[in-house]
Amino acid sequence: MQSAPMKQLTPLSDTQSQRDERRIPIDRVGVRALRYPMQIRDKAREVQHTIATSTLTVDLPHHFKGTHMSRFVEVLNEFGPELHVDNIHTILRELTQRLHSVSAHVDFEFPYFLTKKAPVTGSPGMMDYTARFSATLEKDVIDFVVTVIVPVTTLCPCSKAISVHGAHNQRGQVTFSVRFSEPIWIEDLIRLVEESASSELYSLLKRPDEKAVTERAYENPVFVEDLVRNIALRSNAVPEITWYRVEAENFESIHNHNAYALIEHRKE
User: Fold this and answer.
1) 137: nearest Cα among 76, 96, 85, 185
2) Structural domain of 132
3) Tens digit of pLDDT for each residue in 99-140?
4) Number of domains in the chain
5) CA dist list (Å): 67 to 15, 96, 146, 165, 226
6) What is the dihedral of CA 220, 221, 223, 229, to 10 degrees?
7) For 100, which DSSP code?
8) CA–CA distance from 30 to each of 60, 71, 81, 109, 225 (Å)?
9) 7 versus 94: which is more confidently predicted?
10) Cα–Cα distances in Å, from 261 out to 196, 211, 221?
11) Domain annotation covers residue 13
12) Is 19 part of any domain?
């Protein structure tokens, strides 16, 4: 019995590759909010497994109508069920080749967990931070930036100076981005930020720990300006850091607004 002949498939139109007559290039086009499993080097445990929220983009020349969005996902999937940070350079080169682009950019933002012991009782607890790898390939040169977002406690020096009882304090958030000449641990960047604040945060505190943290903050008041300057001073002392951008935002406890400061510096 003969099988039925296969239907002749009609060629599908490649609309994205059609010519665009507006002659306006696009700086970045691609996919965002794509989640993907990722391996990160962990100073204590060697490898930490996490989930990254990804952005992958390329430039689009003026004569192309659109880019091929599926190719971004294809490139990522080629690295198996779990992405490793060492693959990022290869991903950038693959994107430029597959999409006929001059430049490519990727962001991988992910939660990063550290076990922290309470300062007095030593009770262990898991603290989560946000980290981000941002990499750009342009003219065969790769630019790589590591960012950590670190929650801290700050206590107002002015409030302490003028108040008979106590001083107002608040949680703050520091966004610390660096370029570097040699690899640097995420843990070390987090520690640098935490040592610059009135106090670091913990996930688990017993009463003796809470007393110690409260008193530590009271003895170490910092304005938001002090916070970014402290981080800048410590960054200047780390030879591996070649550039940094530090933003601090205090979620004020007695004002209906936040306090904010930023320092960006490239070492000579």
Assistant:
1) 96
2) 25-266
3) 989 999 999 999 999 999 999 999 999 999 999 999 999 988
4) 1
5) 9, 12, 28, 62, 46
6) -20
7) T
8) 10, 9, 21, 16, 37
9) 94
10) 14, 29, 16
11) no
12) no
Encoding tokens for residue 256?
A: 């209906």
pLDDT of residue 23: 82
In a domain, 11, yes or no: no
E-assigned strands of the chain? 26-42, 46-60, 83-84, 103-117, 124-138, 141-155, 169-180, 199-200, 241-250, 259-266
Q: Identify whether the C-beta of residue 180 lies closer than 8 Å to the C-beta of residue 147.
A: no
| pLDDT at residue 63 is higher than 90 | no
As a dihedral over the C-alpha atoms of residue 222, residue 226, residue 230, residue 233, rounded to 10 degrees, the angle is: -160
Counting Cα atoms < 13 Å in the Cβ hemisphere of 13 gives 3
Q: What is the distance in angstroms between the CA of the first residue and the CA of the last residue of the chain?
A: 80
- How far is 115 from 117, CA to CA, in rounded Å? 7
Candidate from 36-50, 139-153, 196-210 with smallest mean pLDDT = 36-50
Q: What is the per-residue pLDDT across 82-103, written as a single tens digit (0 to 9) for each?
A: 899 889 999 999 999 999 899 9
- 75 HSE (CA, 13 A, CB side): 28
Residue 155 φ then ψ, to 5°:
-120, 135
Chain centroid to Cα 118, Å, comes to: 26
Two structure tokens written together for 214: 């409260």
Q: The CATH number of the domain where 218 resides is what? A: 3.10.270.10
Mean pLDDT of the 23-49 span: 91
Residue 15, domain member (yes or no)? no
* Number of residues assigned to the chain: 268
